[in-house]
Amino acid sequence: MSDAPAVTAPPTLGQKLTAEAIGTFVLVLFGVGTAVITQGEDYAAVGLAFGIAIIAMVYAFGRVSGGHFNPAVSIGAALGGRIAWREAGAYMGAQVGGALVGGLLLVLMFVLGDTGLEFGDDRFGANFFGDRGGFALGGALVIEIVMTFVFVLVILAVTDTRNEHPALAPLAIGLTLAAVHFASMGATGTSVNPARSLSTVFFSGGDAMVQIWLFILGPLVGAAIAGLSYPALFGHGAEPVVGSGMNFGGGRGGSPTAPGYGTPDAYQQQWNQQVPGYPQAQQAPVAQAPWGQQSAPAQQGGQQGWPDPNAGATQAVPAQQAAPAQPQKIVQDGWEWDPAAQQWIPEQKAPQQSWPDAGGERTQIRPPDGQ
User: Fold this and answer.
1) Rounded Cα gap, residues 314 and 204, in angstroms
2) In this structure, are strands 357-358 and 343-346 parallel, antiparallel, or unpaired?
3) Which domains does the chain have, with CATH numbers?
4) Which of 117, 157, 201, 262 is the most buried (most CB within 10 A)?
5) CA distances (Å), 104 to each of 114, 203, 277, in order?
6) How far apart are CA 367 and CA 300, in angstroms?
7) Which residue has the higher pLDDT, 106 or 278?
8) What phi-psi label fits residue 81: left (phi over 0), alpha (psi between -120 and 50 degrees) or beta?
């Protein structure tokens, strides 16, 4: 039986989008469902429902997609250098799709459950402002921007590769979302998530449709501010991903792990993707001189004198030339990234050096006489 470690294939884009759709579906089903049942009057129940749902889904699918479940989070991640814009756009489509399915199922359950709610009812958890209750337009817009900014900033912080407690990240995210609901439900019904706001608006009254723009614009603006602010204030824990931030092209970044910190876990890897199709790019080991060789002293002031055993004099040896830089070799679980082909291939291992064989006997290299 081979002792070689099993090679784990990285998540495909299809698997990531499936995880995002399921996670957003569950978030709507639990969070908005609780808001409909309580008619938004029990802030604690609604806030905890959203918070617990996000904790469960991030623990379940964070290793697959990172667990965004929110277009605003994907925008913040893209601007923060954590995910490419192309993939962020696909994430947002999957999130809205999962939210709409969750909203439709939720409405069907209440309509078929003879609860007195019908299609077009304004009590299906739609967000609100102005004459529909809560804050006026200006205040509602500001609170959605500020609350989303805080939420996305926390997410970027706890998923940073420099965070040494990644296992607690989903808990911190869920508790922050619960606190956001406690603070803003009376003002707007709390969105901070355009997919959540879109989930039931098409099944609610016309007034909800008229006001939906604010609950798309506000969260996206708040997320954009957070995505730009976090790396500006605290730096990047990893090189920005290709096609993220304000950069839509260029070469692949370097090591995803900041010096002095441990290897990211699977959840942090998905939040700090470095190679298309795989979350983690590892540094190649530092090359060392072959066994038995010693590095020459640093060359200072021109030439270095070395003893000549034959002439008994000092022979000048030219200063060593620096070897050309070699491209970084990226290896993960038995697979190697081929930068030319832009794909993963089985790891290419260099052949091992062996002693010359003369008549079945090993040849021993002796130093010159006199040494």
Assistant:
1) 93
2) unpaired
3) 13-271 (1.20.1080.10)
4) 201
5) 16, 8, 33
6) 26
7) 106
8) left
305 strand-pairing partners = 316
Residue-wise pLDDT tens digits, 11-57: 999 999 999 999 999 999 999 999 999 999 999 999 999 999 999 99
Residue 294 identity: Q
CA–CA dist 150, 45 (Å, integer): 21
Is the alpha carbon torsion for 59, 61, 65, 70 positive or negative?
negative
One-letter amino acid for residue 76 of the chain: G
Residue 73 in contact with residue 155, Cβ under 8 Å? Answer: yes
d(CA 128, CA 107): 18
- At 331 the three-state DSSP class reads strand
Is residue 225 a contact partner of residue 233, using CB atoms and an 8 Å limit?
Answer: no
**Residue 106 in tokens:** 């939720």
177-219 pLDDT per residue, tens: 999 999 999 999 999 999 999 999 999 988 999 999 999 999 9
As a whole number of angstroms, the distance between CA 324 and CA 301 comes to: 22
345: enclosing H helix or E strand: strand 343-346
Nearest CA-CA partner of 141 in 210, 180, 191: 191
First vs last C-alpha separation in the chain:
49
Within the chain, residue ranges assigned H as helices are 13-27, 33-38, 43-65, 71-79, 85-112, 137-158, 169-188, 194-201, 206-211, 214-234, 266-271
Are the C-beta atoms of residues 335 and 347 closer than 8 Å to each other? yes
Length of the chain: 371
Give the integer Cα–Cα distance in Å for 105 and 124. Answer: 12
Calpha distance 22→29 (Å, rounded): 10
Asked whether the whole model's pTM tops 0.90, one would answer no
Cβ(33)–Cβ(49) under 8 Å?
yes
In terms of Cβ atoms closer than 10 Å to its own Cβ (0-12, 13-18, 19+), residue 132 is middle
